Amino acid sequence: MYLNEFGPESMVNGKRATSIDVARLAGVSQSAVSRTFRQGASVSATTAARVREAAEKLGYRPNIIARSFNTGQTKIIGLVVSYLESPFYSILVETLSRRLQEKGLHILVFLAEKPMSRVSSIVDEFLDYQVDAIVTASVSLDDKITRRCEAAGIPIVMLNRSQQGRRVSEVTSDNYSGACDVARHLASTGRSRIAHIAGWQGASTGVDRTAGFLAGLEESGIAPLAILGGDYARDKAVAAARTLFQEKTLPDAIFVGSDYMAFAVMDYIRFEVGLRIPEDVAIAGYDDVPIASWKSYELTTVRQPIEVMVDKTVAILTAQIAEVAEVSKVKIRNDLVIRRSTAGDAIR
């Protein structure tokens, strides 16, 4: 059965207006109405103006759901994300949503409370909604999910995550080299008792940042004072900092695996331990969210280029929806942004 993609939406003489009603009032063909409301379709400016004026008078809107049956595309992109309390991911989701809207696409967001929780059931729901593609941010995928989406012909792009061996497109920043730069910088300021509060080690970001940091310390001839888990959670980051400052040998610098954790650690050091930043202990983070530049923190951090990462993600998924691109893996270089939280040499 062929569905009228501009099916009944509004009322005309007690009945919902259709594209036929709009065409009759505008004095054009029904196909002209269809082209007017289809992005990228060819229609003259004069005809489009007449159609839109008629549609407004009738209170008519095209039936997007019906259109998807005819085109085979819903124009909906599924996004599954965790850690939304982190400023980095809230900005990322907003930026992704804006870019998709510019392409005439819409975003359907599902939250995974923990990095791997509900991902399988969420993908089931995405398949029920017949999304055109899936973006995962801050969550990982298993082979079963990947195979199901591949069988359904639904492209997947992992944003800010990577997984070895997966036939899934990825867009990440170079977490390894960024963390390595942090270690070199802290060493260059004379710090030698350098600790690390790491992100979740079940995520590529956490693993790569820790590995890069250790490589940078080794290059500088420094052994890490301690490595503790923060799991990208404020409370766990504070607990890790508390452990560090209960030891006999105190750190003179800490690399924290994300800005979100770093802010909590800085507040703990200043207001509970009573030490000065950077005079007593230097702090560096990762992400460069807007709060990092505030006078309250002035946090040295690694800038993840969200705009570039999102643009690459949208370019990959739109190309794969159009079936003009294969699986792609993109890694983007980061920049170290030095601010007051690590400024100056260590006080000996």
TrEMBL record:
Asked whether the UniProt record includes Nucleus among its keywords, one would answer no
SUPFAM superfamilies recorded: lambda repressor-like DNA-binding domains, Periplasmic binding protein-like I
Task: Report whether Lipid metabolism shows up as a keyword of the record.
Answer: no
Q: Under the GO molecular function aspect, what terms does this record hold?
A: DNA-binding transcription factor activity; transcription cis-regulatory region binding
Name the domain of life this protein comes from.
Bacteria
User: SMART domains per the record?
Assistant: HTH_LACI
UniProt entry keywords in alphabetical sequence: DNA-binding, Repressor, Transcription, Transcription regulation
One Pfam assignment: LacI
Residue intervals of the HTH lacI-type domain? 17-71
Q: Please list which residues make up the signal peptide.
A: none
PANTHER family in alphabetical order: LACI-RELATED TRANSCRIPTIONAL REPRESSOR (PTHR30146), RIBOSE OPERON REPRESSOR (PTHR30146:SF95)
Tell me the protein's name: LacI family transcriptional regulator
Q: Which organism is it from?
A: Saliniramus fredricksonii
